[in-house]
Write a structure and sequence with these properties.
Helix content: 25-40%
Number of helices: 5
Radius of gyration: 18 Å
Number of strands: 5
Distance between the termini: 18 Å
Number of domains: 1
Strand content: 15-25%
CATH architecture: Roll
Strand order of the largest sheet: 3-4-5
């Protein structure tokens, strides 16, 4: 059995790389999702994650592996965060590092899809023969499908 048999996540239309990070964040919050696909003319470009946007609200000195270990000295930081939220309006999705994930196609066997999902934290894109995004495959969707097919 291949992915053709699996109902994919009903993702919203792909974000354009030119979408503002604030608009991407609002859409994630409205939809109750932690990520959104990004497409260039319908072609898969990557995945933007809510954690990427949260990182944009932090001071540059705190980002990354060797950044500040805590920010308690700043206090509540509401003024700083409010400033960074306003800046999200002018920052585009293309300006953050998009998650480059392996892509699946509709003919990917379910066991291969399960292996790739196990190895990656994010849902994976499923592309049609034309290279356009068909939808996203999550662990939850795949496991629910497998349970329904086994009668358990």
């Amino acid at each position: 059995m291949t992915l053709r048999a699996v109902p994919l996540l009903p993702e919203p239309a792909c974000l354009s790389p030119d979408t503002s990070l604030l608009d991407a964040l609002r859409l994630m919050l409205d939809r109750g999702v932690n990520h959104l696909p990004v497409c260039n003319d319908g072609n898969w470009a990557g995945l933007v994650d809510i954690n990427d946007i949260l990182g944009e609200l932090l001071p540059v000195s705190a980002r990354g592996e060797h950044g500040l270990r805590d920010l308690r000295f700043v206090g509540d930081g509401v003024v700083l965060i409010a400033k960074h939220i306003k800046e999200l309006t002018n920052k585009k999705v293309r300006e953050v590092e998009l998650h480059d994930l392996p892509t699946l196609d509709e003919d990917t066997p379910l066991l291969e899809a399960a292996l790739l999902l196990h190895r990656h934290v994010k849902p994976l894109p499923v592309l049609g023969a034309d290279g356009k995004l068909k939808g996203m495959l999550s662990r939850r969707v795949l496991l629910a499908h497998l349970i329904s097919k086994t009668g358990n």
